[in-house]
Each structure stands twice: as structure tokens, then as C-alpha cells.
Design goal:
Length: 822
């Protein structure tokens, strides 16, 4: 029984060991299968990595080539940009120089234009003065106007019109001519007569006429005159004129000598005993007989000075116009040069912007390429590390697989040994069972023998007891054996069931293993698919990057084209403005849609032909228009200001006229009343009055003086005698003094035509007014002198020496009274 129990335990232990070994064997097989799958996967992955590494190396080589090309292109772009910058600096310097030159020419042109405008204004003023005969008397102007109107013939003009005098002698000749500068030259005496009749008929004044047929002259012929110090020439020789006027010039200037200065003039006059007129260039004159006239005289104020200035300014204006044309041509040339260099600068600027855009595009592309190459390099390094890891993993799996194979063989041997041992143990178990059966048979026999012995042998109880004890002992062993056998059987059944279960589990695990392998295979296939997708995604990413780079280059190219287009558009707009004076909006309003390019070109040709038919453009028309427009606006403004001022002045004049009418009417009435009383006082009776010839036009009408001396009829002053006229005029003077007193008054021989009675009346009345007004009276009448406070006289005791004498009559009268009283 003990051996059987030990055998059963040993069998159970062996079965457990066998099961463990079989489980370990199954696990090892599964591990081997997994290792094989992993090794297969690693091999496939290693092959894929090798291919990818090769592709990465090729991509890196291509990327290095592209990077090298881009870096070379970048260096070329930088060199091009540097060259363009140098070119732009040169253009900038040229443009600055051209702009400075153009500004200087514009400034010079503006200055010359201002000078020309000033000269034109001055020439216009002088021309107007010449045309209006400014400086000539009213009579001369009237005759010249009649001549210009065709109503007088045979009139050549004034002496100033016919004689040309150098600037140096203009003042001297004009002073020497004096009023003769306005003398009118005619062909005959009859022509002069018609001129005089015209003046008399028109009541236009008096003028002197010089008929060519009557006026002759001769030049001064004094011995030694040209050798005198300071002698400049005879005046008639210093001027120029047509031959037909030489007699008149000799008549007017033939006896006038021009000398350097006053000292030379005095010496010459003494030498020739003051027989002719001497004049200096600054206008100092020594007249025949010794009289001297001189002082200051204004420059460029005479007729000859004005004519000379007009001729000189006209010549200067002509030269100024030539200068303006030259400056305008130079300015336009400078502006064309500036425009050309500005255009070159703009083109260079556009090229530089294009080069900068290209450089920026290359820099971006180079940056993208470097990032792409770095990505390729990083991916290759990752693949290399993964390949190294796979290599190590493959080596490890190979080692593990070798160890697993050895362990598998060991476990298989152990499992086989255990199976044999279990079989042996199970065969020993069968022997024990037969022995147990034999023992059972023996127990049965013994029980039968014991019953026979009980019945036969009672005597030997000891032996029976022993046999009973032995029987009990054998029975106990049998029970324990039976229990043990039952336990081994139950254990065996359990083992068999466990084995069956384990085999089912092994089968299930095998199925599960197959399912896992199928799942792993599906996962591997998914991994392969994902890897393919990742590779495809990487390829698409590379393609997308390349597309992005292409789009970046395209964008840079389009931006460059846009910049060029904008530059061309600006150039077209500038040419549109420069050539046609049109803005973009103005041109858009005149835009015409053409049907075809051929018709458009034909239309352009027609327009060009029409433009060519117009002839060469007036380059200065714009400047001329600007100048004339500016002048027109200025003159329009001036005219408007003048018109406003005229209206204001007319309004002021109207107001002043109204006020003057009022004041004049009041004072005229007061003066008429005062004149009537004064007349009566002076004449000792009678009456007088002042009347307006046209009471409606008090400022423009004449004044009629009517007087009625005592014992006579009322008459106009023109019908009175000379003395009555004088005394009436004196009464009017005194009336004016009463109405508007003056602090000081000078009377020059107003009593010349009065008889002694009226002189006494005049002097006594003058004495009355002397209390308020101081009178200085120039008179030869005794009655007037007697009423004076102080007498002044001039006497010449020595030849050429005058002396003033004075006498205070009131002091003399007081002295005489005192003497008589004494």
C-alpha cells in the first residue's frame, strides 16, 4: 500500500510536471512563433528601411544639389542687387546734379522772365509816354494828333522826334534847347500857317513852327575854340539827324558849345566875352551876356533821355528775349535730361525691386530647401537609428530563438521522459491493483479459515486474538488501501479531467494563438498599410512643399510682374499727362471701345498723321500760356481792383462834388454879398454882384462879374475902363480876404492902373485890412507907400552891386512929431 501510495503520488507529481512542461512547451512554441513573426516583421521592416534609407540618401543628394544651386543663384542675386544699388547710386548722383542744374536754369529763367516783364512794363510805359507825347504842351499834342488824324499835312514832328542825341549829351542838349525841344518842323510856311490856324480855331494854345523852307542856321566859328580846355564840341555836331533837318539843328544848336565842366565853361566864356551859349553835360548853362543858370537836374527825365532809354531798353529787351529763348531751351534740355535720368533711375529702381524680390524668393526657397533637407536628414537619422534598433532586436530575437529552441528541445525531452515515466508508473499501478485483489481473496479465505478455526479451535484464544488483531489490522490496511486506491482513482480521474481540460485549454489556447497570430498578421498588415499611407503622406507633404515653393516662386514672379505693371502703368499715366495733359480719370471719360486691334492700330496711325499734320509743337507755348495766363489773371485782378477803386473814387468824387457844390454855393453867396458891400465901400457907392453863368452846373460854369460904379449903369466887368476893372478886381480880392482871411498876402503892382483918387481909396481900405492880414505890396504909387508901415527899396550905387534900404514910417513919423513938439 505504501508503495502504491507513493507511486500514485509520484504519478500525480509527474503528471503535474508533465503538464507544466507541456504548458511551458506550448508557451515556448507560442513564443517561438511570435519570435518568428517578429523576426519576419523585422526583416521586412529592415528591407523597407534599407530602401527608404537609399531613397533618403538620394533625396539628400538631390537636396544638396538644389541647395548648392540656390546658394549660387542667391550669391548671383546678391551680386546683381549690389550692382543695381551701385547703378542706382550713380543715377541718383546724376539725377541730383541734373535736378540742381534744372533748378538753377528754372531760377535763371524765372529771374530773366521777371526782368523781361519789368523791361516790357518799362518799355510799354515809355512807349505810351512817347505815343501820348508826354512832356509836350497841349498845343503841340493837339497839332500832332491832327497830323495823325490826317487833317494836317506837311508836318514832320517835333525837334525831339527828329534829333538823336547820345546819352552823355542828352541833358546838355535838352537844357540847351529848352522849350525849342517842342518846336514843330513843317515843310513850308503854309504848313505852319495851317497849324497855327488849327490851334487858334481849337483854342488849344500856342506852339512854335519851324518851316524847312525858311529856317536856316549856321554854326559857331570862333578861332581856337576846339583847343580850349574841356571843349567837347558844338552841340549841333554832337547830335545826329537826317540831312534835311541839318539847317534847323544848326539854327537851334549851332551857337551852343558843350564843355566838360563849369570851370571850363567860365574860362571859355571869359575868353570869348560871353558871345555864345555854353552848357555842361550835367545841365549848367552860361548864357550870352554872362547870365548863368544851373543847379541839380534829374537823370533820365527829359525827352531825349526817355527816347534813348526806350531805344536802350528795346535793345536790352531783344537781348533778354534771346537770353530767355536760350534759357528756355537749356531749361527744357535740362528737364529732358532730368526726365531721362529719372526714367533710368526708375527703371533701375524697378530692376532693383525685381532683384530684391528675386533675392527674397531665393532666400525663402533656400530656407524651405534647408528645412526640407533638415527634415530629410532627420528622417534618415531616425531610419538609421531604427535600423540599428532593428538590427539589435533581430540579434536579440535570434539569441532568444536559439535559446528557445534549446529550451524547447530540453522541454520536449523532459516531456517525453515524463510521459514514459508516467506510463511506467501507471503500469506499476496495475500490478498493485492485482495484488490488492489477491489480498482481498486471501482475506476472504482467511475469514473462512477463521470461521472454521473459531468453530474448531477455542482453546487457543491468544492465537485467535492475535489472528483477530491481525485480521483487524489487515482489514484496516485494506480500508486504507481502498481509500488510497479510491483517492488515487479519484486523483487519476481529476488528473485525467485536468489533463482533458488542459488539453482543451491547450486547444483553446492554440485556437486563441492562431487567432492572435491572425490578429497580429492583420495588425502587421494594418501597420504595413499605415506605413504605406505614411510614406504616401510624406510623399504628398513633399509634393505639397514643392507646390508651396512653386506657388511662392509664382507669387514672387506675379508680384514682380505686378510691380513692373504698376511701373508701366505709372509711366503710361505720366506720358499721358506729359504728352496730352490728361489725368487717368479724364482719359477714362474719353475712352473709346475699339472693335479690333487692327482698327485700333489704324486709328492710332490716323491720329499720328493728324498730329504730324499739325506741325511741330510750340515748345514754349505752355510756358507762354502760363506766363500770359498769369499776366492775364494779374491784369484782370488789377483791372477789377482798379474798377472797384474807380467806382469807389467816383462815389467819393460824387460825394465830394455834392459837398463842394453845397460849400461853393454857400461861400459863393457869401462872397457875392461881401463883394457887393466891399465894392460900395471902395467906390464910395454903386453896386456889384457875382452871377453864375449856369446855376445848374455850379462847378463847371463860369462866373460873371457885374459892377455899377456910382453914376453909371450896371455893366459887365469887361465893359469897364481899365481903372474900374482894376479897382473892381481889388474889391473882389478884398472880399475874398474877408470871407477867407489869409495870414500873409503879396500884391504886385495891383494899383498900377488906378488914378490917384482910387489909389488913396485902395490904400486906406488896405490899411483897414492890415490889422488881420500882413500885406507885402510891390508898388510905385505914392499913396500906397504912405499907408505902409515899412518901406524896402533896392538901389545900385556901384555897377553890378545892389543894396537894400528899409524905412519904418511909423518910427519916422513918431520921431518927426517929437522933433516938432520939441
Amino acid at each position: 500500500s505504501h508503495r502504491q501510495g507513493d507511486g500514485a503520488a509520484r504519478i500525480a507529481a509527474l503528471k503535474v510536471t508533465e503538464a507544466a512542461r507541456r504548458e511551458e512547451l506550448s508557451a515556448l512554441k507560442a513564443s517561438l512563433a511570435s519570435l518568428a513573426a517578429s523576426e519576419s516583421e523585422l526583416s521586412a521592416r529592415a528591407e523597407t528601411l534599407i530602401r527608404e534609407l537609399s531613397a533618403r540618401d538620394q533625396s539628400l543628394s538631390d537636396a544638396d544639389g538644389e541647395l548648392s544651386g540656390l546658394e549660387h543663384a542667391l550669391r548671383e542675386a546678391e551680386e546683381t542687387l549690389s550692382s543695381l544699388q551701385n547703378v542706382m547710386q550713380g543715377y541718383e548722383l546724376r539725377r541730383a546734379a541734373r535736378a540742381k542744374k534744372a533748378d538753377a536754369l528754372r531760377e535763371a529763367y524765372a529771374k530773366a522772365l521777371t526782368e523781361q516783364t519789368t523791361l516790357k512794363d518799362r518799355v510799354s510805359l515809355l512807349s505810351d509816354l512817347e505815343r501820348e507825347h508826354d512832356g509836350h504842351s497841349r498845343a503841340v499834342v493837339t497839332v500832332l494828333r491832327e497830323r495823325d488824324a490826317g487833317r494836317l499835312s506837311g508836318l514832320h514832328g517835333t525837334v525831339s522826334d527828329l534829333v538823336r542825341v547820345p546819352d552823355r549829351f542828352a541833358v546838355a542838349v535838352e537844357i540847351a534847347l529848352g522849350a525849342a525841344v517842342q518846336n514843330l518842323v513843317t515843310d513850308t510856311e503854309e504848313d505852319a500857317k495851317r497849324g497855327i490856324e488849327t490851334l487858334r480855331r481849337m483854342n488849344a494854345g500856342r506852339a512854335t513852327f519851324l518851316p524847312l523852307s525858311a529856317v536856316t542856321g549856321r554854326r559857331l566859328e570862333e578861332q581856337g575854340l576846339p583847343s580850349m580846355p574841356g571843349f567837347l564840341g558844338i552841340a549841333s555836331e554832337l547830335v545826329s539827324c537826317d540831312g534835311i533837318y541839318r539847317g534847323i539843328v544848326d539854327n537851334l544848336l549851332g551857337r551852343t558849345v558843350v564843355v566838360e565842366d563849369m570851370d571850363a565853361a567860365i574860362a571859355m566864356a571869359r575868353r570869348y566875352s560871353h558871345r555864345f551859349r555854353i552848357v555842361t553835360p550835367d545841365g549848367q548853362v552860361i548864357l550870352p551876356g554872362g547870365a548863368m543858370t544851373g543847379g541839380s537836374v534829374g537823370k533820365s527825365v527829359g525827352v531825349f533821355s526817355r527816347k534813348n532809354e526806350l531805344e536802350r531798353l528795346t535793345a536790352i529787351l531783344s537781348g533778354c528775349e534771346e537770353t530767355l529763348r536760350a534759357l528756355s531751351a537749356d531749361r527744357q534740355e535740362a528737364e529732358r535730361e532730368l526726365s531721362a535720368v529719372s526714367y533710368d533711375y526708375d527703371v533701375a529702381a524697378g530692376e532693383r525691386r525685381q532683384a530684391e524680390d528675386d533675392l527674397l524668393s531665393l532666400q525663402k526657397e533656400l530656407q524651405h530647401k534647408r528645412i526640407w533637407r533638415q527634415g530629410l536628414s532627420d528622417a534618415r537619422d531616425a531610419l538609421s537609428r531604427e535600423a540599428e534598433t532593428l538590427s539589435l532586436r533581430t540579434s536579440s530575437l535570434s539569441s532568444e530563438r536559439s535559446e528557445a529552441d534549446i529550451r524547447l528541445e530540453t522541454l520536449a525531452a523532459e516531456a517525453e521522459a515524463l510521459t514514459v515515466e508516467i506510463a511506467e508508473r501507471l503500469s506499476g499501478q496495475a500490478g498493485l491493483s492485482s495484488e490488492t485483489s489477491r489480498l482481498s481473496d486471501e482475506v476472504s479465505a482467511l475469514r473462512a479459515q477463521g470461521a472454521a478455526l473459531d468453530a474448531e479451535a477455542a482453546s487457543d484464544r491468544q492465537t485467535l486474538s492475535e489472528f483477530e488483531a491481525l485480521q483487524e489490522q489487515l482489514g484496516g490496511d485494506r480500508a486504507s488501501k481502498a481509500v488510497a486506491i479510491e483517492a488515487w482513482r479519484r486523483k487519476n480521474r481529476e488528473l485525467l479531467e485536468t489533463r482533458h481540460v488542459k488539453q482543451g485549454e491547450i486547444s483553446s489556447l492554440s485556437d486563441t494563438l492562431e487567432q492572435k497570430r491572425a490578429g497580429l498578421k492583420a495588425l502587421y498588415e494594418d501597420i504595413q498599410a499605415l506605413e504605406g499611407k505614411r510614406v504616401a503622406a510624406d510623399r504628398r507633404a513633399r509634393e505639397q512643399n514643392e507646390e508651396n515653393l512653386r506657388l511662392e516662386r509664382e507669387r514672387a514672379r506675379l508680384e514682380s510682374r505686378k510691380a513692373v505693371g504698376e511701373s508701366e502703368e505709372k509711366s503710361i499715366i505720366d506720358r499721358l499727362w506729359d504728352n496730352y495733359g490728361l489725368t487717368r480719370s479724364a482719359a477714362a471719360t474719353q475712352r473709346t471701345t475699339m472693335e479690333s486691334l487692327a482698327k485700333t492700330n489704324r486709328r492710332i496711325a490716323e491720329l499720328k498723321s493728324a498730329i504730324a499734320a499739325l506741325g511741330p509743337p510750340n515748345i514754349g507755348a505752355i510756358d507762354e500760356y502760363d506766363r500770359v495766363s498769369e499776366r492775364y489773371e494779374y491784369l484782370t485782378t488789377q483791372r477789377a481792383d482798379a474798377e472797384n477803386a474807380r467806382q469807389e473814387l467816383l462815389s467819393i468824387i460824387a460825394d465830394i462834388t455834392d459837398e463842394m457844390k453845397t460849400i461853393f454855393s454857400e461861400h459863393f453867396a457869401l462872397l457875392s454879398d461881401t463883394f457887393s458891400r466891399t465894392f460900395s465901400e471902395i467906390f464910395g457907392g454903386g453896386s456889384a454882384c457875382l452871377e453864375l453863368t449856369d446855376p445848374e452846373d455850379v462847378l463847371g460854369c463860369g462866373i460873371e462879374i457885374k459892377a455899377q460904379p456910382p453914376g453909371k449903369k450896371l455893366k459887365s466887368i469887361s465893359l469897364l475902363s481899365g481903372g474900374e476893372k482894376s479897382l473892381t478886381a481889388i474889391a473882389l480880392y478884398f472880399s475874398i480876404f474877408k470871407v477867407r482871411p489869409a495870414p500873409f498876402c503879396v500884391l504886385d503892382e495891383v494899383d498900377h492902373d488906378l488914378d490917384d483918387v482910387n489909389v488913396a481909396r485902395f490904400a486906406s481900405y488896405l490899411r483897414k485890412l492890415a490889422d488881420d492880414i500882413q500885406f507885402v505890396v510891390i508898388t510905385h504909387r505914392r499913396g500906397t507907400m504912405e499907408q505902409a508901415d515899412t518901406l524896402y527899396g533896392v538901389t545900385t550905387r556901384e555897377e553890378g552891386v545892389s543894396k537894400i534900404l528899409s524905412l519904418r514910417l511909423r518910427e519916422v513919423e513918431a520921431a518927426l512929431n517929437m522933433k516938432m513938439e520939441g
